[in-house]
Amino acid sequence: MKLFSKVLISCALLGSLAPVALAADNRNAGKDIGHVFLASAEPAAKPVEVLKAAAKDIVLKGDAKCTVCHDESDSPKVLSISQTRHGVTADGRTPTCTSCHGESIAHLGHKGSSKPPKPDHVFGKNSGTSAAERNGACLSCHKGDKRTHWEGSQHQRNDVSCTSCHTIHSAHDKVRERATQDEVCFTCHKEQRAETHKISTHPVNADKLACSGCHNLHGSAGPKLLKKNTVNETCWTCHADKRGPFLFEHQPATEDCTICHAQHGSNIRPMLRTRPPFMCQECHDGSHASGTPVGLNAAGRQGGMTVAPSRNNVGGSCLNCHNMVHGSNSPAGGFLQR
Amino acid sequence: MKTNNENMNVSLLAVAVQGALLAMFAMPVYAADAADDEVAALKRPVNSIEVGVSNVSQSSAKFGEYNGLNKAAANVIGNFSVKGGDAYNPFGESGTLRWGMYGSDLGTTSRALGGSVGSQGKWDLSIGYDELQHNIADTYQTPYVGAMGGNTFLLPVGLPRLNNTNLITPAQLQTVAISSTRKNTNVGAGIILNDAWSVKFDYNQLVQSGAKLMSFGSMKVAGGSAGEYVSILANPTNYKTDSINLALNWLGDNAYATGSYYGSFFRDANTGVKFQTFDAIANGIQTQSTMPSNDFHQLNLSGGYTLTPTTKLTGGLSYAKNTQNSAYAYDVYSMVNPVAPFTNGVSPQASLNGDVRTTHADVKLVDQTTKALTLSASVKFDERNNKTASNFYYMNALDGATNHQGNFANAPVSNSKTQFELAGDYRIDKDQLLNLTYNREDVKRWCNQYAIGGLGVVAGGAPGSNLYPAGANCVVAVASKDDKLSTAYKLKLSDAVKLNVGYAYSQRSTTSDANAITPRLSLNGNLTGAVPLIQGVNAGDFRGFYPFFNASRKQQMLKGGVNWQANEKFSLGMGAKFTDDKYDSLYGVKAGNSWSVNLDADYNYSENGSFSAYLTQEHKQRDMTDLQTVAAITANATRLPVPANGTWSDRQKDDDTTIGLALKQNGLMDSKLDLTGDLSYSMGRTGYTTVLNYVGTTATPNFWTCNSPTLASCGSLPTIKNDVIQLKLTGKYKVSKSAEVTVGYLFQQMRSTDYYYNGLQSTFTPNQVMPTNQQSPNYTINVVTASYSYLF
Q1: Which residues of B touch A304 (CB under 8 A)?
Q2: Which SS3 state, helix, strand or coil, does residue A231 take?
Q3: How much of chain B is helix, strand and coil, in % rounded to 5?
């Protein structure tokens, strides 16, 4: 009976592993040898060999020891790394699993039914690996260029890791795609998320501008992680018409666009922090009508008017005449009216 | 993840045997192929071509501001993404070549198209095109004749002179849709020369067309009653900007560096816009200048060096030259002496020959002294050095009044900012982090050259009074120092709960020169050209008044947050921030504060389903006090009787609420149907309240009360209200491995009330503003989409 059982078991295991062997060989050689294997009905010693054969690399060089468990059924789909730049094995710089996750001896050597110990470096949300260690794995290759100012940057100092934003194994890394990047940034930057819903915004919600259009999230020499050295240099990348230099300049416009503009969104068009004439009166007191309280007159009320309100107050208010607030290149533009 | 259990008992073996036998004899041979397919699917990119149609129920420039759906019409949906190359070979020998092409929103004016090819580790090449039509207004009306995007706007023959009693009629107005379109074309290339060196090149051409609305104030002309007649016209945006970036990267074992050139060249097809005033129809055409063409060249060098395994040094240098020499756009009505030499004896250039040099330098040292302590020190320097010449220009104000004529010098202001930062991050233990930062910011402002002399008194002539003595400052706030101390503490209370709190205090002290002479001086108390200058003013402003952005100020910030990961499925987060600003100015902005609260919840109720919700509440407030310009004891139709030193205050309040709900359910109907739903609501409120801080006589009550129907110079303005609600539902059904059908529904409603538009209505016209009948955006729009995707 025992002998019968052993024979039966051997046959059954052999049979059950046949599809595995077929799959493994197909993956690694791209050849269909399944029929030969099945037809030949080779010795019963095959299972061990088959297991070894199955433990061949699937995506990365040397990944066999990992993919024998972390295969296509894994979630998240680790094999998708093949579609990323990290999956181009013919590029000599391409890492393998242990390049990032460490040699993970304990994890690999685990036997038994218990939960295996974690790899040396784990990058998940609740990873026990410190942000510095996680980032070290990435920065060992990705240094310089746009990451020159990573050390000491706001994100680095706040324990943001590369994988806080990037999904390394995914074919679609949300933070690298313009349409979805803001979702990643808004995970932490809640006020900016709210501001993009205001009536006057950049086209962020229309997926035409990503946060990285203005910011270098990996650190920068500019303020607020801006891509350029100053606020204005960054704005003038797209709004070069405001760059001048103008014959008659407007001091705040040359210093910092955000003195007047709320760059993430505003209730006052066009992305203004406040509405003229109040905006002008925050800086101008002595001249002309800017020292005059306008109150309800700025509303240009339609009923009961016996005297038409001043053009100084309605609509664009001061900007009705002083329209060249970014600077004027007219020799008659001293009042920023031409 | 698979797990191997090597301790199976006999009964398990029996089960395994039965299962294995079943597998041996019953499982199709092609079962393994299924596994291969699954692996291949993960390794190969999924290419897609999506075609479909969307229907928009209502035209709205605001709804379609950036998405190209501004018209009530059917639009073609066209998206594709195709990738290939031997680097994607899933099982065979793979190479390094990858290529890809993409297109999105091809049926709208927000389309994008591009492609890339590259051999990873060797070279890459990309090209892209991106279009964006910014729809600005669809309710704008004008009697002017002139195409949007053009630069000449004339009034129709026979249009009567308009005033408060002779209003324009609807028949005299035509509706013009206003938009400005940006078309970006970019080319990029990169070559990796070897392990150490690589080169990158990017070129971008931005071509902008169309127009944006802008007010044009007219000069007083013969036959007209006065100047300052305001026409809101389509100011053309016929721009082209070419940008180039060429970078050389070097990477060593312990160091790296990048040297680059960045060039940006802006060209405006127009030097001016011609327009006709409606004050005096028969009279001449006036000229408004446009944005001048300009060039920007910048050299950059940045890099880093690992001094020791725990000490890193990074730094950068930039130097740029920004020039502008476009010919001036003369307006013969605006120049006092318009014929050359047009400044009554002084002959400035016929063009600016503007020259600004910008310099940037930064260096940062980061040292992880111990595993627990990281220290950093950094210095940054930015300078805008304006080397443009300063000259006197003799011009009229729009009202044409001789006592408002200006004869003053352009002020090519330079500024520099030096920032010094010391920071320390101390990890108290594995669950606690404390950081402390000190920041010092020094700002300086000056003019390299500032014209001296000038014509002096301009009301009626008498050149020669020395309004601009040698050594005069061109800017009031010549320097400021800002010291800031901030600290933050993070605590991981447990695996489930994380806390953070932060506080910052900064103090800015500004040095001002009350005798500085800024441009536009002639409209304040120094109009008469007294020598020395009249004391009691900060150039253009009363002494004690300072622009808020450079005034002395104390600022505090407090923030905190907590995150609770209740279990693997549910998490909750809350954050709050408070700021308080106090300005030392007697007049101007006196104080400001803000607070915000965020609540976020995520519930991943299954592997395929999740629900999230958030709420953000924001409040901002600004208080300012201004001195009434001129004490007016006798009231008239445009002025309140203001006592000497009378002041008024204004408070701005912003309150915004944003709510979002999102639901995602994948894997329905045998894993064929994915559903997503997003609901968002935002409510914005902005209000202004003005209070007069003085009491006058009751002799002229109409001029005194905040409820005065005529002048109404105090009180609360109607609150600006913007409410937007949006519901977006998407269903994606997998018909087969190679086909998907997507059906979507979008509902968006905007309710907006903004007093800005009141004064622009033809039924009520300030007698010097041409009505445009623009309306606050209000719409209710339904968009239905259906598309078919072919996947391969």
Answers
A1: 709
A2: helix
A3: 5, 55, 35
CB-CB: which of B289, B322, B685 is closest to A324?
Answer: B289
| Nearest partner of B752 among B686, B702, B674, B677, judged by Cα | B686
A124 touches chain B (CB under 8 A): no
> Searching chain B, which residue's CA lies closest to the CA of residue A130?
B430
Residue that has been written with the tokens 């997503």 in this structure: B676
Q: What is the ipTM of this complex?
A: 0.90
Residues of B in contact with A241 (CB under 8 A): 237, 239, 266, 268, 291
**For an interface test with A, which of B769, B770, B779, B783 has the most A Cβ atoms less than 10 Å from its Cβ?**
B769
Give yes or no for B607 touching A (CB within 8 A). Answer: yes
User: Which pLDDT score, from 0 to 100, does residue B694 have?
Assistant: 76
- Distance CA(A156)–CA(A147), nearest Å, equals 11
Which residues on B lie below 8 Å from A85 (Cβ)? 120
- Which of A138-147, A248-257, B200-209 shows the lowest mean pLDDT across its residues? A138-147
Residue ranges for chain B with pLDDT beneath 70: 1-35, 90-92, 163-166, 281-283, 337-347, 403, 453-468, 519-543, 629-644, 695-712, 763-767
Which residues lie across from B321 on neighbouring strands?
B297, B357
Angstroms from A79 CA to nearest CA on chain B: 6
The whole-number pLDDT of residue A215 equals: 96
Residues B629, A59: C-beta atoms closer than 8 Å: no
How do residues B366-396 score in pLDDT, each as one tens digit? Answer: 998 788 999 999 999 999 999 999 988 888 8
pLDDT, tens digit, 9 for 90 and up, residues A214-232: 999 999 999 999 999 999 9
- Who among B5, B43, B565 is closest to A113 (CB)? B5
**In this structure, what are the phi and psi dihedrals at residue B402, rounded to the nearest 5 degrees?**
-65, -30
Q: Is the pLDDT of residue A293 over 50?
A: yes
Are B774 and B757 a contacting pair, CB within 8 Å?
yes
Residue at B696: amino acid letter: G
Mean local confidence (pLDDT), A282-298:
75
Write out pLDDT tens, residues B24-44: 444 444 445 666 778 888 888
The answer to whether A39 contacts chain B (CB < 8 Å) is no
Please say whether the beta carbons of B777 and B750 come within 8 A: yes
CA–CA distance, A7 with B687 (Å, rounded to integer): 87
| Contact status, residue B462 vs residue B470, Cβ threshold 8 Å | no
A248 forms beta bridges with A328
Q: Specify the pTM.
A: 0.89
- Over the Cα atoms of chain B, what is R_g? 33
End-to-end Cα, chain A, rounded Å: 106
- For the sheet containing B272-276, what is the strand order? B152-153, B272-276, B285-289
What are the distances in angstroms from CA B575 to CA B491, B559, B654?
14, 7, 19
Question: Given A148, A203, A282, which is nearest B304 (Cβ)?
Answer: A148
Is the Cβ–Cβ distance between A257 and A263 less than 8 Å? yes
Q: What residues of A are in contact with residue B251 (Cβ under 8 Å)? A: 143-144
Please state whether beta strands B152-153 and B272-276 pair in parallel, antiparallel, or not at all (unpaired).
parallel
The closest of B282, B244, B249 to B264, measured between CA atoms, is: B244
Q: What is the DSSP string of B370-396?
A: SSSEEEEEEEEEEEEEE-----EEEE-
What is chain A's length? Answer: 338
Residue-wise pLDDT for B59-77, tens only, equals: 999 999 999 999 999 999 9
Is residue B56 within 8 A of residue B71, CB to CB? The reply is yes
pLDDT for position B519: 62
Residue A19 in this model has a pLDDT that exceeds 70: no
Asked if residue B387 lies in contact with residue B356, where contact means CB atoms within 8 angstroms, the answer is yes
- Per cent of chain A over pLDDT 90 is 48
Name the helix (H) or strand (E) containing A310: none
Burial of B333 (0-12, 13-18, 19+ CB in 10 A): buried
pLDDT at position B215 is: 95
